[in-house]
Amino acid sequence: MGETQNLHLPLRNRSSLKKPLLIVLLVCITSVLLVCTYMYPQYNSISKSSACKGLSSRGCEAALSGWLPVHVRKFTDEEVAARVVIKDILRTPPVLNSKSKIAFLFLTPGTLPFEKLWDKFFQGQEGRFSIYIHPSKLRPVHISRHFSDREIHSDQVTWGRISMVDAERRLLANALEDPDNQHFVLLSESCVPLHTFDYTYRYLMHGNVSFIDSFEDPGPHGTGRHMDHMLPEIPREDFRKGAQWFTMKRQHALIVMADGLYYSKFREYCRPGVEANKNCIADEHYLPTFFHMLDPGGISNWSVTYVDWSERRWHPKTYKAREVSLKLLRNITSDDMSVHVTSVGKRGEELHWPCTWNGIRRPCYLFARKFHSDSVYKLVRLFPNYTSTEV
């Protein structure tokens, strides 16, 4: 019995030692909680004050709400109304019959230097296309027999500003008046066709998406242009970039015209001087962001208009007559990889995506820019030799 009692004594001693340790641990945890409780409201107040700098109380609430993921944040009444209308339009089935036409929308600062080439492209296709011209500067525009459909006049258009988007919307509005126009193509005066009209018609009319460029550029000239004033409707993670040269189905053209909410955010805030040194360019961000948010599965995320950014300047390379060759044009028409250049780093990073048409890998481009006006006769002469007839 004496030995047994001696064996139990160390256990009682260890048990008694645990009590002070538990008390110390509880005191430490309580102290940490008290410190956090004291510091958190200050941190929250500082963060809120920083986030809301320069914003109204409503704008402050919008900014803070905009930081929440879309699946967590509650949509505003304006967003609910806009999304209901857009979803209803997108549910409308497309109409494709013998009267269906493609509307070619030319956004030009003056003359159309490649009319002779376009005349060759449109030859014999009457009743399958419409042409709308929007001079972006108030200068006379020469119009040939194929370019006599519709000339639209408006205020001067400025590159990089919302007036460029307004010009696009004005072209779409006029073209939508004709119910037979089922696909819409935006082109500049320096654009040229790469394929026959039949090839282009089948590619666009029978494709399952609109060919709208949209990609994520995490650099200063991409996501870096997002404005906190755009929150909560346009979260930073949904901000996209892309070339303005689109082709879109009628349903997509209709939702662009129906949109007032998202367009107003770009009209008010996507311009220089709103926030620090951000230089937001409306025509590069409005449609890419809008479609990424509202119908991401309905667009290609690449443009069917080829542009050469290899020189890494503010504007793409312009091909002069001496640079135009059959080899160059065949290389462009056979290219089945789209390229996007981000603003990350000094030279930017290239993103390469395969081009698919109804799920099948196909060449990317139907049109190309920029070409100098001195190349028109060379392009007219080469046109039959580099175009394709089958999709």
From TrEMBL:
One cellular component term from this protein's GO annotations in UniProt: membrane
Which is an annotated GO molecular function term of this record?
glycosyltransferase activity
**What is its membrane topology?**
Single-pass type II membrane protein
Where mainly found? membrane
Pfam families annotated for this entry? Branch
Q: Which domain of life is it from?
A: Eukaryota
Keywords (A to Z) from UniProt: Glycoprotein, Glycosyltransferase, Membrane, Transferase, Transmembrane, Transmembrane helix
- Where does this protein reside within or beyond the cell? Membrane
- Coiled-coil ranges per UniProt: none
Any transmembrane segments, and where?
A: 21-40
Q: What is this protein called?
A: Glycosyltransferase BC10
